[in-house]
Description:
Elements: H1 8-13, H2 15-22, H3 27-47, H4 51-60, H5 69-76, H6 85-89, H7 95-106, H8 115-122, H9 133-144, H10 154-162, H11 164-181, H12 188-201
Helix pairs in contact: 3-4, 3-9, 4-8, 4-9, 5-7, 7-8, 8-9, 9-11, 10-11, 11-12
The structure holds fe (ii) ion (2 copies).
Amino acid sequence: MKDIYDDELYLKQYAPEFELVRSRIGEKRLTHSLGVAHTARLLAEKYGADPAEAYLAGLCHDIAKELPQEQMLALLQESPLADDVEVRQHHQLWHAPAGAVLLAQLQADYPRLTEAVQGACLWHTLGRPAMTLLESLVFVADLIEPGRNFMDLAFIRQAVWQDLQLGVCACMQGVIDFLESKNDFVHPLAYEALAYYKKKHKKEC
Ligand SMILES: [Fe+2]
Ligand SMILES: [Fe+2]
């Protein structure tokens, strides 16, 4: 695959993990994952996180997304969200907790798939109040990576590069607005997280 994001050093450093992810998802999703990895590492450089770790977390965040539903469900049972009734009822929310469990299982062979990387995978769809820096980077990068164009992202991209917390807030608001406009399910934790970030920063987003 062509390195369209000029991340050669990171791809070299994480060649085993890249092959692992590539063996589990199709080309389109791999391109998305490389976009998330690229964006997360650029944001890490700006906001004082470890760019290499952010790159790895971005690369791995959708590792479980193409598993058969039975396998995703089996992994979900092992996750901290296993007893969350709303998550169980909405299969579009399974791949994040399932992915985190999968990464934990793979950690014996891939020691760089640390708990921090697993956490970034776990929360990348729902978000939550008080996310770690790495979780925040992957959460926003998933929405604003260069390949994303499913909603008007200009304001959100600007917010993310202006102030990370404001950007998290803008991403949460944008996703909730998007889901509500389609009458899709919004998990209560997403509303809780949005309220947390709005209150914390006393800013509209
Ligand atoms: Fe995802
Ligand atoms: Fe994603």
